[in-house]
Sequence to fold (214 residues):
Amino acid sequence: MQIVRGKKLETLEPEQFRALVGQFREVWIDVGTGDGKFVLDCARQQPEILVIGIDPAWNNLEKSSHRAAQKPAKGGASNALFVASSVEAIPAELRNLAARVFVNYPWGSLLRGVVEPQSGAIAALGSLLTAGGELELRLNYAVFETEADRAALAIPELTPDYLNGALSGAYQACGLSKFEWSHLPAADPVRSSWAKRLILGSARSTILIRARKS
Ligand SMILES: C[S@@+](CC[C@H](N)C(=O)[O-])C[C@H]1O[C@@H](n2cnc3c(N)ncnc32)[C@H](O)[C@@H]1O
Fold:
């Protein structure tokens, strides 16, 4: 797979990746990681976990991948890894690997993918998890509130009926049971850049969806 090292992409061979995974207690994956700050933060706090951020817009990962490679005293985290990939083309090595998968404030095809039963994104996210692993998904509810935004983004209305019916069913069909959702009306404690940009200090709420792979 292609990993980000500063301004460059490098190939990490499957056997090199397996050896790396073997050094850690478990793996967490953040899909649509953006600038990678959430991954860096998790990796610094949990040095025994390999934390992997995935995003097709890999140029935005230059700074975080550079920071990760520094010494721990300078904010480095050798347990943070950044992969250039979309949810539609996840490298096979990442399958059945993660105890936790995060998607924080997605946009574009990732946003559509996590709320559309017909998309392949839900199955792709499920495929990353180990049995018993947990998916945690945060959505900016504001974009679902008006018909104009929903039409522009090609996303459905997130009514309780839709969440509890079609969407929960789609997650279950992909092996993701115990589907639960809730509104986080106040500031989201997740430390991602877009949580800060969109939610912190605003009137916007977050929809938090959790599901567990059976
Ligand atoms: C609003 S940003 C959120 C970034 C980060 N999770 C955060 O909270 O700061 C949405 C991210 O989703 C990524 N994205 C969009 N479509 C994607 C796809 N199909 N697969 C993976 N990532 C995608 C974008 O490149 C972008 O980095």
